[in-house]
């Protein structure tokens, strides 16, 4: 797996909205954060325009991402918001130049399509991390500091308290994953995630329990758990009980989906749609040790 060059002070970084529209005040706050890191933010053409819920038309969003990927001066591309939209344009994006001059792609949620696309098609790492829209809930120092460390190549080591439903064990492998519903929607496309021999990270927001079960069952039937070495579960935010009740918590639904496998499982990693969103490098080797005392996640790049 190729790791793009880590950033250095003075580097230019692109800021784009390939999915949903992001309010300008959060873009302004992001610019200040990046400048404090001694980076030079370059705002894309999707910053400002709006078409329905999208940050401009499909053509504009595709063109904006393409220009950022092709611009040699841009060393990383930060998505400002998730939501929905990347799947409408990603097959039109030409990654030929990116393939030979990779750069960090940053975001989460709908950006899961980009992550799994560049890992599966181009063997290139990317960063699952916080975005400008998250600033609506205020500045979260843990989230932004972990993103800075990931971008600048500093060590990422996490310790997570024990969860009663954890399944102990140890795994060392490449990390992949993202939002469960997006991974499910990507099945059968060029952006489909390859989980074979990997540690799989999963998180979700706002889904009913039966819907979560359907996504996981679909992933299971597609063989996505067959050769996984470890399962790292992030935030399961604002999950909604069914009427009548489905009868299982989100954590129990996940354990039920993977009961036929013996890999370690960690719940409660602080990444995803929750208030804190610690950065993860998808495509990088990571060691996960799950014990009754807690879990450690150590990046080996």
Give the spatial strand order of the biggest sheet.
Answer: 6-13-12-7-8-9-10
Can you tell me the overall shape?
globular
Helix-strand sequence: EHEHEHEHEHEEHEHEHEEEE
How many structural domains? 2
Query: Mean pLDDT across all residues, rounded?
Result: 97
CATH class of the largest domain: Alpha Beta
Approximate helicity band: 25-40%
Number of strands: 13
Oligomeric state of the chains? single chain
Measured distance between first and last alpha carbons = 11 Å
Query: Structural class, from helix and strand content?
Result: alpha/beta
Query: CATH homologous superfamily name of the largest domain?
Result: LD-carboxypeptidase A C-terminal domain-like
Q: Provide the β-strand percentage band.
A: 15-25%
| Number of separate helices | 8
For the largest beta-sheet, the strand count, sense and barrel status come to: 7 strands, mixed
Cα-based radius of gyration, to the nearest Å: 18 Å
CATH fold name of the largest domain: Glucose Oxidase, domain 1
InterPro entries: Carboxypeptidase_A_C_sf, Class_I_gatase-like, LdcA_N, Peptidase_S66_N, Peptidase_S66C, S66_fam
Domain LD-carboxypeptidase N-terminal: 13-129
Active site: 109, 203, 273
Keywords: Carboxypeptidase, Hydrolase, Protease, Serine protease
Write a structural description.
The chain is an alpha/beta fold. The protein has 2 domains: 12-152, Murein tetrapeptidase LD-carboxypeptidase, N-terminal domain (Rossmann fold, 3-Layer(aba) Sandwich); 157-299, LD-carboxypeptidase A C-terminal domain-like (Glucose Oxidase, domain 1, 3-Layer(bba) Sandwich), CATH 3.50.30. The chain has helices spanning 24-36, 58-70, 96-100, 112-122, 141-152, 180-185, 209-221, 250-257, and strands at residues 12-16, 40-43, 74-79, 104-107, 126-128, 157-160, 169-179, 198-205, 230-237, 265-266, 280-282, 285-291, 294-299. The strands form 2 sheets. Strands 6-13-12-7-8-9-10 form a 7-stranded mixed sheet. Helix 7 runs parallel beside helix 8. The longest helix has 13 residues, at 24-36. The radius of gyration is 18 Å and the shape is globular. This is Peptidase S66. One of its GO terms (biological process) is proteolysis. Belongs to the peptidase S66 family.
């Amino acid at each position: 797996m190729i790791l793009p060059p880590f950033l250095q002070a003075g580097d230019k970084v692109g800021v784009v909205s390939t999915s949903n529209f992001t309010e300008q005040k959060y873009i302004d706050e992001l610019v200040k954060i990046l400048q404090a890191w001694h980076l030079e933010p370059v705002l894309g053409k999707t910053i400002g325009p709006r078409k329905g819920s999208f940050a401009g038309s499909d053509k504009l969003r595709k063109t904006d991402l393409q220009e950022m990927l092709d611009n040699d001066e841009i060393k990383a591309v930060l998505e400002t918001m998730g939501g929905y939209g990347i799947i409408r344009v990603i097959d039109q994006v030409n990654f030929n130049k990116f393939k030979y001059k990779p750069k960090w792609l940053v975001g989460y949620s709908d950006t899961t399509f980009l992550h799994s696309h560049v890992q599966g098609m181009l063997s290139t790492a990317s960063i699952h991390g916080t975005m400008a829209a998250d600033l609506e809930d205020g500045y979260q120092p843990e989230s932004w500091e972990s993103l800075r460390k990931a971008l600048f190549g500093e060590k990422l080591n996490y310790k997570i308290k024990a969860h009663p439903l954890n399944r102990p064990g140890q795994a060392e492998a490449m990390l992949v994953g993202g939002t469960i519903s997006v991974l499910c929607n990507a099945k059968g496309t060029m952006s489909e995630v390859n989980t074979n021999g990997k540690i799989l990270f999963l998180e979700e927001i706002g889904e009913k329990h039966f819907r979560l079960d359907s996504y996981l069952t679909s992933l299971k039937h597609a063989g996505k758990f067959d050769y996984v070495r470890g399962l790292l579960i992030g935030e399961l935010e604002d999950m909604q009980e069914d009427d009548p009740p489905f009868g299982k918590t989100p954590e129990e639904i996940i354990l039920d989906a993977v009961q036929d496998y013996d890999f370690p499982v960690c719940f409660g990693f602080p990444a995803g749609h929750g208030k804190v969103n610690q950065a993860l490098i998808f495509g990088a080797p990571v060691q996960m040790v799950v014990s009754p005392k807690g879990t450690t996640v150590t990046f080996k790049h």
